[in-house]
Amino acid sequence: MKLLNALGAFAVIALLSACEVAPIQTGPIPVDRPQTTGQASPRLSASAAARSFVQVVRTLEPVAERECRARTTGMNCDFNIVVDDRPGQPANAFQTLDKNGRPIVAFTLALIADARNEDELAFVLGHEAAHHIAGHIERQQQNAMAGAVIFAGLATLSGGDANAVRTAQELGAEVGARRYSKDFELEADALGTIITARAGYDPLRGAEFFTRIPDPGDRFLGTHPPNNARIDIVRRTMAGL
Fold first, then answer.
1. Which residue in 55, 124, 141, 173 has the fewest CB atoms around it within 10 Å?
2. Where are the alpha helices (DSSP H) in the chain?
3. CB pairs under 8 A, 24+ apart, for 104-109?
4. Residue 114 contacts by C-beta under 8 Å, 6 or more apart in sequence?
5. What SS3 class is residue 117?
6. Rg for the chain (alpha carbons), in Å?
7. Per-10-residue mean pLDDT for the chain, 241 residues long?
8. Is 64:79 a contact under the CB 8 Å cutoff?
9. Measured between alpha carbons, how far is 22 from 210 in angstroms, rounded to an integer?
């Protein structure tokens, strides 16, 4: 049970750090701050950003919940959209579950302030809701557990002591959790595009924030796909609607 709990917590943390949407370092994975080009749209004022966020939540949340109920069976689709107002938090959004299994989507104040328009806020919310609908937390936990079991087994067969097995177990959990994280992000981008469009927002305009964040490239076991791949899947999904 301790192993299950540890791996579950690790997988959730890995997923939470996988949805960085603004050029600020967050979580255990360091990211360089990019240089903003002269072509970037200006940020909304604080009051305009707050109003936009409230309007986006009111408009998109019921659409996300309808998509959730239509695409799943027995899943809790009652989204709770919250603002993480802890001081000093970087621009970030993440999806998690409360102790009763209710899906939570959290936006930090810095992310809301970084938005250039309502379409960006809507796309981020659609993307995070899509993580829940696709069951990514549970799937990532399963991947982490499988990796931990395999690596621990290899360490045991190699004659490792308890510390070596525990280290291998932790490494295996990390490798397992990251193994399909890029696929999960692209899945959430595609379904998030559908949710955003059905709520009346422009996913293509919303995905323009990918032009402002560092491009992770195609690193082995990286958590993010290349930015151009993410923009491309938004375009291809829109073309099919």
1. 55
2. 2-16, 46-71, 109-114, 118-133, 136-157, 162-179, 181-198, 203-206, 227-239
3. 104/79, 104/80, 105/79, 105/80, 105/81, 105/129, 105/132, 106/81, 106/82, 107/53, 107/81, 107/82, 107/83, 108/83, 108/84, 109/83, 109/84, 109/85
4. 22, 43, 91, 209
5. coil
6. 18
7. 36 43 32 38 84 96 98 96 91 91 94 93 96 87 61 65 66 57 89 97 94 66 72 96 88
8. yes
9. 8
Q: Where are the domains of the chain?
A: 2-19+42-239
pLDDT of residue 78: 97
Burial classification of residue 231, based on how many CB atoms lie within 10 Å of its CB (0-12 exposed, 13-18 middle, 19 or more buried) = middle
Q: Of 62, 70, 63, 65, give the one whose Cα is nearest residue 103.
A: 65
Of 45, 44, 15, 43, nearest to 27 (Cα)? Answer: 15
Q: What is the pLDDT of residue 112?
A: 94
In the chain, the amino acid numbered 132 is H
- Distance CA(195)–CA(62), nearest Å, equals 10
Q: Strand, helix or coil at 97?
A: strand
